Automatic annotation (TrEMBL):
Residues 279-696 form the Glycosyl hydrolase family 95 catalytic domain. This is Glycoside hydrolase family 95 protein. GO terms for molecular function: hydrolase activity. Residues 3-252 form the Glycosyl hydrolase family 95 N-terminal domain. The keyword Hydrolase applies. It comes from Paenibacillus anseongense. Residues 698-792 form the Alpha fucosidase A-like C-terminal domain. It comes from the Bacteria. Keywords: Hydrolase.
């Protein structure tokens, strides 16, 4: 469970990430000049919340619908640009911490690593006979970054620490702290939008943008420390603990940033002083105890590793890839590590890069991209036993829905709430595109409310927390359903359709050669609304909300009238309501397959013909793609129960991408195992971990399927601590490719259905046999009691 390297990071994608949900750092490990690139998750561009809604969109909507009804798709594309709003804002880097060492000399026996078992990154090397060691971690309990430096000889540590930032800033030294204060830009254009002055700063004294402060303190055990305008100087020490704390003036998604820095500085100072009052060992133990409570819940063993023990991770990727089962395990647990490091209670949700970004104009603004990427970040949260890490996204959805109510009314004259393709820290819910500069194939997608509502329902499905469902999830789901009820309208055949409608980022080609993105009733729209309506009906039934019975009936009636999915001339599940040709048959998005994964509309037992058509569509897309696209395909092939094909996609993902690789269509991983879109996007890491879990346990179809997509290359192994819907924990082991034993832990009790390829012979709890019935071939059912564990054994 270590990422290991024999040289320091020369590129950002070779550095190692640490984080506590709010603070993040990329650690480079250079013996001569250590570099920590720093982030804080509320540091965004912008001057606070803006009204990006477009009242003109209501008038344009009617014209666009008329053009689409007449089949004038190119004209509809152009006209629909009038429905756009402003671009949203960008996630910002905070700055850099540099430690310049004065030891010189030739470095020997160098190693750096990131230990996933305790979330600590280490650097060790030798100069002459002196061994130098560094340990670095981001503490959630103490909300600081801790840097421990040691030398094996007395007085051998001599270095200068200094802080820097890409933003306008000033450095200050107090009696005990080195700190910088700076300002963010008031506006940053997306990196793909080219115009003059894409980054705009205000006056440092009067700016309305977010302000920030980073403080560095030191705890000496020997030696001396001095502070001046050049930095923090340490001389003649053998052990030093540096502590970094940061704070911003962000006050909430619906408030402008604070203009005064007094409260920000006071909070930062108190936090740093509290951490400095503790010994390094106290800080370290508190960090490990907090982290391992989450990380240790899941164990995975896929068999013996082919790689020699201690082999550097970059060489391991290049030489073995997915043939090394141990490397697959490492990447699986790395996804869980990254979610813990970037999404904790009280933090912002993980964005397109988690919390790690060094660019003033990061790729795709490093925002929350809501047409797949933000959702993919959290696919692993429930299945991989990190339900608490789901909470930042669930809270964000609530804030987004508040703004989304205004957008639904202003832009479309609809009830409920709506959001579109992009979100930022200010919860912009209007479509982006700078009022016509964007492309409607991605900007005009009013379906993120429906997709995000799935996360609200899934959190309930995995926890069975009715209080959460009643007070938090269902009210937001209800409002999303109201929007969809108003957005839908009847076509000439009597079906309910959406219009305008896009299949995110993928265009179609009509029989007469038109190429456009906007049409009617794309399969993804219909699938998302089916999912939202189905979940909303179940929520009303669970909560027994008599006051919503009429709404339930309205939703149920609309559900029956939704335009059905269709099978096209290639035997594929159609992506659009008409059987058009793809602009790119190998397009990275597979949006029309939502009903397979992460949805539950299409299953082998329930909808065999459409399920097969969806599989044919995935075959046509091919096994290539960007990093996150490969991760989605891994999840889909797992749902199609083809373990060997799934492993082939894992092989495609576990290819080393060099830093200078810019081929947009070649995914893989960088040397530090970050997902390569390219460039870096973290969603592929999270999607991969979710996909491996889906290979071993599935629970979307009203039953728990054990080992549904086990590949031949993993004949022996075990997994402990996965979660299934119904508030059930699942652990299992297998030998020679067959299930050996499983444990089912019932949190709330109730009926449990288990599907296996093997014949289950016994079910027992607390050493006593439990009666069960065979529902059909491969499926058994038995009753569970809350808090009890059930052991299942096969032949």
């Amino acid at each position: 469970m270590k990422l290991r390297y024999q040289s320091y990071a020369k590129a950002w994608t070779e550095a190692l990430p640490i984080g506590n949900g709010r603070l993040g750092a990329m650690v480079f490990g250079d013996p001569e000049v250590e570099h920590l690139q720093l982030n804080e998750d509320t540091l965004w561009s912008g001057r606070g919340p803006v009204d990006g809604n477009n009242p003109n969109a209501k008038h344009v909507l009617a014209e666009v619908r008329e053009l689409l009804a007449e089949g004038r798709y190119e004209e509809a594309d152009k006209k629909s640009k009038g429905m756009m709003g402003p671009y949203n804002q960008s996630y910002m880097p905070l700055g850099d911490l540099y430690l310049k060492f004065l030891h010189g000399g030739v470095v020997r026996a160098y190693e750096r690593n990131l230990d996933l078992t305790n979330a600590i990154t280490r650097v060790e090397y030798r100069i002459g006979e002196i061994v130098y060691k560094r340990e670095m971690f981001a503490s959630y309990p103490d909300q600081v970054i801790v840097i421990r430096l040691e030398a094996s000889a007395p007085g051998a540590l001599n270095f200068t620490a200094r802080l820097d930032s890409p933003h306008p800033y000033r450095t200050i030294q107090s009696v005990e702290h080195l700190f910088l204060q700076g300002i963010c830009p008031e506006h940053v254009d997306p990196n793909y939008y080219n115009r003059d002055e894409p980054v705009l700063y205000g006056d440092p004294e009067t700016t309305e943008a977010i302000r920030f402060e980073g403080r560095l303190g030191v705890r000496l055990e020997d030696g001396a420390a001095t502070l001046d305008h050049d930095g923090l100087h340490i001389r003649k020490a053998s052990a030093v603990t540096l502590i970094f704390s940061a704070e911003t003036s962000f006050q909430g998604y619906d408030k402008p940033p604070a203009r005064e820095i007094g409260d920000m500085s006071a909070t930062n100072e108190v936090r740093l002083e509290q951490a400095l009052s503790k010994s390094y060992e106290q800080l370290r133990q508190a960090h490990i105890q907090d982290y391992t409570t989450l990380f240790n819940r899941v164990e995975l063993n896929l068999g013996a590793s082919e790689a020699p023990e201690g082999m550097p991770t970059d060489r391991r990727i290049k030489q073995y890839g997915a043939k090394d089962a141990g490397l697959v395990e490492l990447l699986f647990q790395y996804g869980r590590y990254l979610l813990i490091a970037s999404s904790r209670a009280g933090s912002q949700p993980a964005n397109l890069q988690g919390i790690w970004n060094k660019e003033l104009r990061p790729p795709w603004s490093s925002n929350l991209t809501l047409n797949i990427n933000a959702e993919m970040n959290y696919w692993l949260a429930e299945t991989c036993n990190l339900s608490e890490c789901h909470e930042p996204l669930l809270g964000y959805i609530q804030n987004l829905s508040t703004n989304g109510r205004k957008t639904a009314e202003t832009n479309y004259g609809c009830r409920g709430w709506v959001a579109h393709h992009n979100g930022d820290i200010w919860c912009q819910s209007a479509p982006v595109g700078d009022y016509g500069q964007g492309d409607p194939v991605w900007a005009l997608w009013p379906m993120s409310g429906a997709w995000l509502s799935q996360h609200l329902w899934e959190h309930y499905a995995f926890t069975k927390d009715e209080t959460y469902l009643r007070e938090h999830a269902y009210p937001i789901m209800r409002e999303a359903a109201l929007f969809c009820l108003d957005w839908l309208h009847t076509d000439e055949s009597g079906h309910l359709i959406t219009s305008p409608s896009t299949s995110p980022e993928h265009k179609f080609v009509t029989a007469d050669g038109q190429k456009a993105g906007v049409s009617q009733a794309t399969t993804m729209d219909m699938s998302l609304i089916w999912d939202l309506f189905t979940n909303s009906i179940e929520a009303v039934d669970v909560l027994k909300r008599a006051e919503d019975e009429s709404l339930r009936n309205e939703i149920a009636a609309a559900l029956e009238k939704l335009k059905p999915m269709q099978i096209g001339k290639h035997g594929q599940l159609q992506e659009w309501s008409v059987d058009w040709e793809d602009e790119d048959v190998h397009h990275r998005h597979v949006s029309h397959l939502f009903g397979v994964y992460p949805g539950r509309q299409l299953t082998e037992q329930g909808t065999p013909e459409l399920y097969q058509a969806a599989r044919n569509s995935l075959e046509r897309r091919g096994d290539g793609g960007t990093g996150w696209s490969l991760a989605w395909k891994i999840c889909l092939w797992a749902r199609f129960q083809d373990g060997n094909r799934t492993l082939q996609l894992i092989s495609n993902l576990l290819q080393l991408v060099e830093e200078d690789a810019t081929n947009y269509h070649r995914g893989g991983v960088y040397a530090n195992l970050f997902d390569a879109h390219p460039p870096f996007q973290i969603d592929g890491n999270f999607g991969f971990t979710a996909g491996v879990a889906e290979m071993l346990v599935q629970s979307h179809a009203g039953e728990i399927a054990l080992l549904p997509a086990l590949p031949d290359a993993w004949p022996n192994g075990y997994v402990k601590g996965l979660r299934a819907r119904g508030a059930i924990g699942v652990s299992l082991s297998w030998e020679s490719g067959a299930l050996k034993e499983a444990e089912v832990e019932a949190q709330v009790g109730g009926s449990c259905r288990i599907r296996t390829k093997e014949t289950l012979l016994t079910v027992e709890s607390e050493g006593k046999p439990v009666p069960f019935e065979r529902v059909m071939e491969g499926v058994i059912r038995f009753d569970t009691e809350a808090g009890r564990t059930y052991k299942l054994r096969s032949v």
